[in-house]
Amino acid sequence: MPTNVCTPFFKPGNDITGHLTTDIGGKRFVAPVAGGRGSQPHIAVCAAGAAPCGVLGHDGVLGENIHFNVAGEVPVVAGADITAGTRVEVGAGGTAVPLATGVPAGLAMTNAASGGAVAVLLNIG
Length: 125
Prior knowledge:
- By secondary structure, the chain is an all-beta fold.
- The chain is 0% helix and 40% strand.
């Protein structure tokens, strides 16, 4: 049974399945890395400030095929205190932090304390 599940609050699009290149906690921003086969990308934790491709659906381990959310409003681990209405970017460890100099990843729909989950309306792509 998966743990730390990222259940979307609103989901208009489809999930994508990726192949994990490392252990990753759920509710974290991920990005494609070298490799992949067919339509299944290899994914890892997104680097701080970089453009994510989605949010991991639940805790996963190296080599696992796992879904990640690419659209909608989903919970993301907050890497700092966040106020609703704040644009967010990727912080350390694939967390959501207030937008500073990175690529916008979405809009915080709720308040969250660092380490908690913030509802993020994704703006990916």
